[in-house]
Amino acid sequence: MKNLFKIFFILSPGLFLSACLASDKDIDGLRAEIAQLTTTLNSMQQNQADLGTRMDSLSSDINVTNENMTETGNMISKLSSKLDDLSVATAAVAQAQADAKAVILPTTIFENARKSLDEGNYDAAIEGFNLYLTKFPDGELVEESNYLLGDSYAGKKQWKDAAVQYAKLLQKYPKSKNTPAYRLKYAKAILPLNKKSEAKKYLQSIPQDYPKSSEAKIAARELASIK
């Protein structure tokens, strides 16, 4: 028993030293872990700072992007307005062109009708001259249109209608330079209507009132042919 106690006391300092040594190692390990944790924490803090900087930068970029989007939206709105203006302007031009095409000038109507008369297309001529007289009753070509309308009826041998036109001219333009022609045409139009006496009267008046006119000679020949 005594020997056992001796052995214990002999070994006890070693065991105590071993225990102390184990504790120092553990402490060093803890210090190392703490140092590592500190390094990790510092790194995390640095990363957090970097993240904060990046967040600030991202926030700034987002603000810039929002501003750009707002500016883009404004530009799109302006462009849309310009497109609306262009659309309206284009429609207005198209309408103006359509209106211009729809407008028929009086000279155009008259010339087309006279061309039809010259070509022997009497129906088209009658339609054209009547259109002119209806649309432009105070036009500059009213007298000539009535005269050529009478010729158009005469071309179709519609003598009564032709005579009406020539009589209208004689009544409305008694001092016209074309009076000899109107009298001659009127006389020739009423002859087929069995109005010989009236026709002779008008034919005789031409050489009497207008002896130097070209119609005077024609009237004389017409008188000679009337039986």
Keywords:
8 helices; about 0% strand; mainly alpha; about 85% helix; Serine Threonine Protein Phosphatase 5, Tetratricopeptide repeat; about 230 residues
Q: Number of helix segments?
A: 8
| Low-pLDDT regions | 1-22
Q: Provide the CATH superfamily of the domain at 159-227.
A: Tetratricopeptide repeat domain
* Top CATH class of the domain at 159-227: Mainly Alpha
The fraction of residues in strands falls at under 5%
Tertiary shape: rod-shaped
- In helices, the fraction of residues equals over 70%
Counting copies of identical and different chains, the oligomeric state is single chain
Named at the architecture level, the CATH assignment of the domain at 159-227 is Alpha Horseshoe
CATH fold description of the domain at 159-227: Serine Threonine Protein Phosphatase 5, Tetratricopeptide repeat
Largest sheet: none
Count every beta strand, where a strand is a DSSP E run of 2 or more residues: 0
C-alpha Rg (nearest Å): 60 Å
Q: What string, H for helix and E for strand, traces the elements in order? A: HHHHHHHH
Secondary structure class reads mainly alpha
How confident is the prediction overall: mean pLDDT? 81
